[in-house]
Amino acid sequence: MDTSTALYLSMLIPLVAMAGNMVWAKQDNLRDGITFICAVLTFASVLVVLSNIGSGTSQEYKLFEVVSGIDIAFKVEPLGLLFAIVASGLWILTHVYGVGYMRGNNEKHHARFFAYFAIAISAVMGLAFASNMFTLFVFYEILTLSTYPLVAHKGTPEAIKGARTYMGILMSTSIVFLLTGVIWTFTIAGTLDFTKGGILAGNIAPALVPVLLGFYVFGIGKAAIMPFHRWLPAAMVAPTPVSALLHAVAVVKAGVFTMLKIGIYIFGIDFLAETGASEWLMWLAAYTIIAASVVAMTKDNLKARLAYSTISQLAYITLGMALATSMGALGGGMQIAMHAMGKITLFMCAGSIYVAYHKTEVSQMQGLGRIMPITFGAFLIGSLSIIGLPPLGGSWVKFLLMVGAVDAGKQVIIGVLMLSSLLNVAYLLPIVGRGFFRPATDKSLPTKFAEAPLLVWLPPAITATGTIILFFYAGGIQDFLAPIVSN
Amino acid sequence: MAVDETEVLARTLMDHLPALQVVIPLMSAPLIVLAGNRKLAWIIAFIASASAFVISYALLIQVLDGSYISYWMGGWAPPLGIEYRIDALNALVLLLISGIGTIVLPYAYESVKTEIPKSQHTLFCALFMLCLTGLLGMVATGDAFNVFVFLEISSLSTYVLVALGAHKNPRALTAAYDYLIMGTIGATFFVIGLGMLYMATGTLNMADLADRIADQGTNRTIRAGFAFIVVGMGLKVAIYPLHHWLPNAYTFAPSAVSAFLAATATKAAIYVLLRFLFSVYNPAFDFADWTLYIIFIPFSLAAMFVASFVAVFQTNVKRMLAYSSIAQIGYMLLGIAMLNVTGLSASIVHLVNHGVTKAALFMGVGAMVMYSGSAFFNDLNGLGRKMPLTGAALVASGLSLIGVPGTAGFISKWVLVQAAFENGWWLIAIAIMLSSLLAVIYVWRMFEVLYLTAPSEDCTAKDPPLPMLIPMLLLAGASIWLGFDTDLTLGTARVAAEGLLAGSAGMAQ
Questions:
Q1: In this complex, do A142 and B405 lie within 8 Å of one another by their Cβ atoms?
Q2: C-alpha distances in Å from residue A188, one per residue of A199, A212, B255
Q3: How confident is the model over A12-41, as pLDDT tens digits?
């Protein structure tokens, strides 16, 4: 199959899944089966793109021109391909998990839920393969809009309030800052195509570069850089599969992916390094890393704690871009895959605990590890990967970022990363500790092995294994991403 | 022989398109009254309106290259005779007006059943066609006094159309009366301005006026005429502090009338304003600094923020949409004030995009009002779920009103902000974005009411009959489509903007 067909298929197949959910809204098994097949096919078509292009860059596939000089167009390059692989691959697992969760938990409106979910995936594919900032922006907004109904899914006043915060922050930052920045870029550069080395050099006064970067950084609300991070905890009112795939992988990664894209292809790493325009961003990212971890420690609600942990981990990627060195950017790119695998595990485990025993607070976790050893084992492995210990995937990211920090001459960042790891230990491991070592306080709990349903505990077990495997294949990912920063 | 004759006839008809554009709807009005039959009335109206639409499209494709068509009414040569002059700018506006008219008619066929007593339906139809005639004539003509004549035709019929809402809510009468007073003041100002121009130049043909003003330069009479014309038309446009008539008129008019007026009436007035600002008066005329920078920019910013802010607090959806219209007119004025090709094309393209979007919104809300009995938020609870297709149309057009990418509204916003950057007005660019956040708030409020509240238990609402549903979905689809395919809208707008900025030359040549 040629690359363009596979590329368009990866965006269209999720829409088929959406249509299937609408048509067979009442037939549960048929509907969920179709979505599963579509998820597999989407992943397969992304793999076809991978086998055709490898770590190279494809030609540009122009869909049509919107305004003269601005097209809806797609192009495959390693960073986007990696993101597409991660998102579509994890969709399969999340769908399986989602079916188990929604049924096990007696949630309502399954068809609507899975339909919007599929639209979000389609938007992620478009975003990952976007060949210019305009196309990316279009899919960025579609992603925001299609996930809004998912956050508001339960329809309770709490869910509506959370969804309003979610929508309000993401929409307003993207309109006021991101769109302004994009149009500004178009006015001065005359193009929005992602070009290696950037499109701004020579078109903008050096003093204005940090300002323009600010428009992008604060405009990309999905990257959850403080002070525009509030939407992420607010989105936790959504059912857990949404939190797992969208708010640990797809949506937030779309944000930091955009951040890397503009750093590498709009500004250009070298241009950022020359002008020093991203130094303020580096400090802001460092601050976000530490501050979000500290807040995470104070959260008793498990999902809220994981949300703040995500904010902190996302800032790693922004930090990687802001360091303006090749190693930093590579580390950032790798974090997309590593953090996705680790964090989705943690969220799925949180959902598993909720489905089985309806526990949401960390202080209620006593003794649960003994009756749910698989869930808590997976949680432990995921935590260790987030903390960044070998032999788990997350460790390489910290390594690369530290190298990048040294390259940039910012040794202090090493201290930030180390402190962050310690804080991660402090807020993640006690959860596992409580589960395994504290005796259960809730007498209604069973005393023997009693896991959540198979469909709910199996996916996190798989992704936890994935974090171990990724440790050994990190070199492959690094080589795969290398072309984005090579000259 | 017969073939030749039809060919000759067709050619002759082609030559007369600019006149037929206005004459066909005009003649249909008395025909409708004579026919007196409800069904027949609608068929005549629809045919007349659809032919006006086809004609305007035929005219548009002839002038897309930046040329113009000059038609001499009755064969009398201008400047003595009345001239119709079609270029890219008015062809596009004609297309919008006749298109919306054609689409609203089937909708009105169903919607007026619940709003107006049956005995008045044919009269409604005739008035509607007169209003359409007036708007088309105002835009097509190249004669300044003729603009006034058609303005009055459209205004007078509009007052009655708004007043017809009184069968549901008597407040429509005061709304129509308000509009009558304000509209008459506006028209009077406009005609006083024309009088001054006539005094100074001795002509009423726009092209001739442009030449003579350019020749003799500026003097007090010409400047005073300018002020009267801008204020008079400003009232019809509903430029921010002159907008008082608009919210009530849109709120209490029958649904179909609201949809039609919101999409066309203010737009035709903006066209006249553009024509006088840029074609009759030369941009080099010393209005540039005063009128545009000191009057248009502050007032358009005020409209964008104040009117949007007021919209956020409305309890009636139709009134909310009306205030949103005032705010959107602010964007169009701002584009004019930028005084560059991109800014003017932003204004022109927004005129079309907003027309399509707002008509779809008013239609959707109108369909809901048919079941709920009122347009208050409380009465629309959960209707989005009960009326899925109507709800979908409202969502699509609501997103376009916000300016979400992939919708018509986004294109307008994109071009407008680009124009601001071209002028280096980055504060204005940010102001545009900030004000569109207010649109997010009021549109989202509507979405939440439609989808996230529970409908009342005895609610029998369902999607309206096809004659209402299809026009609504067509326009909602168009507000998405125009966000991707911008050849027709933005392409034409650019040609028109270049023509306008070329100054009176675009008019006279």
A1: yes
A2: 10, 11, 45
A3: 888 888 888 888 877 778 888 888 888 899
